[in-house]
Design brief:
Number of helices: 7
Strand content: under 5%
Distance between the termini: 27 Å
Shape: flat
Largest sheet: none
Number of domains: 3
Order of helices and strands: HHHHHHH
């Protein structure tokens, strides 16, 4: 797994060193008064400031097993208890329900940690929204007998799709 914090620190150091090297060896490249790009110099400085500020922030704390298990719905806890007892009974009581319960909790924790490790979803592009909205409208009108009945323009279709997403969330 990539350590993004370490990668950010490494890239920040590299950019800082490159920036210092350019100012030392070829200052005219970044000096607006000498035909260089003052905008680039400013952009580098802002990027370095932002990266340094991000690196000073504490890493987000990962929830403990206990915190994750507290979030389990009551029905799930009841089902785990019942399943543990059934499994224990199936062994004639040779294996206590607690052993099965630990196994079920471990599975649930593994699943929760895997879900937490997933990247955050990226919002769809206008092109993706348009394609999905076109399919929805085509099938809707096809179901009514005329798939070519839509009389709105592309902008209307995007507005419609955005309104649906705003109301019911991301796909």
């Amino acid at each position: 797994m990539t350590d993004y914090r370490a990668l950010c620190a490494e890239l920040t150091d590299a950019l800082n060193n490159l920036h210092a090297l350019v100012w030392g060896e070829c200052p005219r490249l970044l000096d607006e008064d000498r035909g260089g790009s003052g905008f680039l110099d400013l952009e580098i400085e802002e990027t370095l400031t932002t990266a340094r500020a991000a690196l000073t922030q504490p890493e987000p704390a990962t929830p403990t097993n206990k915190e994750i298990l507290k979030l389990m719905p009551e029905t799930m806890l009841d089902e785990f208890s019942y399943a543990s007892k059934v499994c224990s009974d199936a062994t004639g009581g040779q294996v206590k329900p607690g052993i099965f319960r630990v196994s079920l909790n471990t599975g649930a924790l593994d699943y929760a940690r895997a879900a937490l490790a997933q990247p955050k979803p990226v919002a769809p592009t206008d092109e993706e929204i348009f394609a999905e909205a076109t399919k929805c409208l085509y099938f809707s009108f096809a179901h009514m007998g005329d798939p070519n009945k839509w009389e709105g323009g592309d902008a209307d279709l995007l507005d419609f799709a955005r309104a649906v997403l705003a109301r019911w969330g991301q796909p």
